[in-house]
Amino acid sequence: xxxxxxxxxxxxxxxxxxxxxxxxxxxxxxxxxxxxxxxxxxxxxxxxxxxxxxxxxxxxxxxxxxxxxxxxxxxxxxxxxxxxxxxxxxxxxxxxxxxxxxxxxxxxxxxxxxxxxxxxxxxxxxxxxxxxxxxxxxxxxxxxxxxxxxxxxxxxxxxxxxxxxxxxxxxxxxxxxxxxxxxxxxxxxxxxxxxxxxxxxxxxxxxxxxxxxxxxxxxxxxxxxxxxxxxxxxxxxxxxxxxxxxxxxxxxxxxxxxxxxxxxxxxxxxxxxxxxxxxxxxxxxxxxxxxxxxxxxxxxxxxxxxxxxxxxxxxxxxxxxxxxxxxxxxxxxxxxxxxxxxxxxxxxxxxxxxxxxxxxxxxxxxxxxxxxxxxxxxxxxxxxxxxxxxxxxxxxxxxxxxxxxxxxxxxxxxxxxxxxxxxxxxxxxx
Length: 430
Description:
Blueprint: E1 11-16, H1 23-37, E2 40-46, E3 60-64, H2 82-89, E4 95-98, E5 103-105, H3 109-113, E6 123-125, E7 145-148, H4 149-155, H5 162-171, H6 173-176, H7 185-199, E8 204-206, E9 218-220, H8 232-236, E10 242-244, H9 251-263, E11 275-276, E12 281-282, E13 287-288, E14 293-294, E15 299-300, E16 305-306, E17 311-312, E18 317-318, E19 323-324, E20 329-330, E21 335-336, E22 340-342, E23 347-348, E24 353-354, E25 371-373, E26 378-379, E27 384-385, E28 390-391, E29 396-397, E30 402-403, E31 411-414, E32 419-423
């Protein structure tokens, strides 16, 4: 297909039944998948009629007819995990990832890890859900499988009839025993898909990206983490792999999803309207504005944002989460570290130096102290700017100076430590 993302996955396949608590999960997660990752969220609704509350703004929705004969327990929610496999098989040449509606990716690590595989034959199992830990059953959770649609069809021996597939799986329930003390069709389906996948000899890849549990990079919001204790810097730089959201999705969860959306990197491929020399590196998740030029041997880290019409010289390093405004000129050999904010029309002379910790050590915690360079300010070659200061609008720091205090707007400072030299005339209008 005509891919519009930087990642190797074309579609995320999701399923939903008639349980109303999951409708909001689709409406929120589809936005995440489409606008953050450029992956088409594709929902298969298992039920008699697709609810009008399900939004098609960011993804595609298909209906899977409910099969009355396959109801294990009418008092339980109707769940049809098999719709994931069937749904993926409907897109033979697309690389499809199976996922849960309450799971949101927060980085591109998993996608980058699986780029190496040949999806014309390989079937990747990432082992994606928490309930596998300590389970007496040896099965593959249906989350984080990645393969082309035609490979799902081959590996799981899928025929063209949705009804026949569901009834075939249902008829196998006696082969696997009871699950969770009550014949849960969800567990039954995963045991059956595991059985079929273990018979598939062509190419099953156990990536093991997820260990089935929660860790410092994959978190569950149910009593574990919230907006108040999440590491925002880690979130912005793609340090978290994914989140499993609580059920049901109340207002607090919606606020949290909005927070994650606003503070996590985007991996959607934009039309490259900037110039980057082939020797330079722009990490996934970095943003570069139109008309910007990045020259030899520079590195723009994930989470960094560079504005429009900037000039980034040779051997420049822009750290994670740094913000560079529009029309900024950064000369050769400059490193702009996390915590530094550079506004529009700033000039950073050759080899000027920024810091971001007042008492740095090679061990222990790193304490970031922010520095702000206001609009139109200029820093001369080899000047050093200690963290925690603010350079006012259209201020100027002379070459080789060491700035330890705030500099007022339209002021020239000189020396070590830098001291007031004179007031500057009003700059030309921008």
